[in-house]
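user: can you give me the structure for this one chain? tokens are fine.
assistant: on it. calling the predictor now.
[tool input]
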Amino acid sequence: MIFVHGARGSPFQFAPIAASLRRDVNVGAFLYDDHARLAPAAESLRRELMRLSGNVVLVAYSMGTLLCASVGADDRDGRFREVGAVYVNPLIGGSRYADADPALAILGDLPMLRWLHQVKTGVQRLLFPPFVQDLAPESDFQQAIFGRGSRPASFAGNTTIVFTEEPGREWDISGSRVERFFGRSRGELLARLGTVAPLGAATCVGHAAVLAHEEILLPPIMQALAAQQAASPIVAQGPTVIDRRYAEDSPA
């Protein structure tokens, strides 16, 4: 099992869950520079997955889900179609915080005021970490995952999506803007990534707090592991850290 952290995160985000799983399965973490552009990190994840043998389950949180989704959308030969995944509060179409102030976003959609989007991009490049540019829905990175010409993720059939945000307080872009940027509804984008787990109202614990709630995350993770186990036995090994370029900065 490979954990993929979110923005300004680390594998410590998954510590409670990893502690419950470590005896039963090889637990690892993909470490990446979460201040840099996201496309190189997704490519690094793809290369690391190619090096792994046996069954793999990805557990990704927030921005980290986009790296996995990018690998799945770019998997033209189906190399990773047997990978299992659990996405926790994914950023569908990017982040609303990178989509600009609502007033600026709406005005920028008008043909005569589209230059406002260029202003937004300039501000992002000057004042924000590079990864923010790839969280904007019009970015090449988001379009490659969700755009009109994109492919559904190759392992969507093995992916469970978990949302624990209150309706209307999601961190991804607003549903009203999804179709404008991607030509599909939010539900259609979700279906291209996986299946949304049916959770009750009691699980609305917020975007980040869910990582401390094993009772919410362990069931879908265990189901993903069981599916992989049914396909081929999973052999328990020692903990693993992949992409050691960032291992010194981010503890496993």
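assistant: here you go. The first strand starts at residue 2 and ends at 4. Strands lie at 2-4, 28-30, 57-61, 84-88, 159-162, 195-196, 240-242.
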